[in-house]
Amino acid sequence: MDATTHGPLAVDVLTRDDVRRALQEHDFAAAFTLIKKWGGLSQNRIASACQLTPGRVSVIIQGQHQITSIEVVRRIADGLRIPGALLGLAPRPWEITPPDPRPADAPGERQPAEDDVPWRPDATVALAGSLTRSDLVMDRRGASRALAAAAVTGTALLDPLEAWLRPVAASPHARRVGRLGARDVEQLEQTAQAFRRWDHQHGGGLRRKAVLGQLDQVAAALNEHQTDAVEGRLYRVMAHLSGIAATMAWDTGYQRRAQDYYRLALRSAHAAEDRIFGANVLAGMARQMLYRGQPQDALELVRLAQEGSRRRAGPRVRAMLHTREAWALAAMGRTAAFCRATEQAREALAGTADHDGEPYWIAYFDEAELAGVTGGRLLELARRDRDHAEGAAAHIRRALDRRGPEAARSHALDRIGLAECHFLAGDITVAVQETHRAAEAVTRTASARVREQLGELYSYTVGHSKAPAVRDVRDRLRDLLANR
Fold it and tell me: What single-letter DSSP state applies at residue 405?
């Protein structure tokens, strides 16, 4: 270890064979006992460093509780400054990145507060330029800070978004005349569609800089005075590119940055007077909140989307919004309300047979997507009541049977969900088989979000060390998750 990895443990403690063996086997009862003995740390000091309660550390040492969460293993590595390799993890950020003496919100990099940016088209263009330029020049240190920034929740998130329902305000500033024509805008629209298809198929942030570069060019074009027809289409392109940038940032683990781009997408849709895409952006923000364990915030976002798109949204958009509503209700344990919202989604989707006027970006929401989302929500209920596991598995299988090769990220999430269903049902043999299939599917997508979901399966493999098949799949999971 070098100076950047200095922590509460002396270097010689982590070179001891007994300590290293306990850490490599994730035997934290032995590891904590040895750390107390050779490192001189109390249970309270270990608990504080690892963000655990002293009582939990006590029962771990007594062998009454096993650590099954990869997230907790990461906290132990970071709190005690244990190199990732000793725990089967990738090198931790502090092993390779020297500490930054500047605060995370250094003045030169602080983004304007949401309330400080008026909901005017010209202000939206300025915000787009600021965001893309800061991202395009972001170095490793800036990326580490962006990765650590937490998503905004509660009133700070929700209140500023109410302005989405207001009419568009005029821009007060004169601009120089632009020369973009309809053909130029059509090419930009086609590029945005191509980026969306790529993201839907592969996930991850591999083309994020290309999206940001295109977004910066659109913002530059909007700084000039285009014709009304061209300008409206450009704002719509900016909304679509911002939405893609948000998804890619989220997939890369940049939660706060994802919110920045979601809000830019919503403002751009507002400037384009495109309430339908704005509702889609709010649904994306709701999904992020659901993954962050904030179902009440998610429900408020969905309700705002439904209010703003009422009498305008087509059946696929209405069905999608109902499933986000159902997701939030399931996360809150409101089973009856979840069933009602899911049925509303099914009824709305049934109306798509004679309706072909919806935008291209909602075409993904079909019977397969509805089955996958419903199965995922039943799985969430099954974590509290295992009687839902069989129904969840049936819906997820239906989704897998109907999804095409263009939905690699969704396919991987379905595979992970199906494996968890079998673990919850107690069918360990099939669960192991499905976990191997899930791991294979994960290798075909670059999404960090998918890998995070895969980590949820790890806990189900702990406690079955006598079963060789379970040990094998646990080792495979650790190998995949070590790269996070």
Answer: T
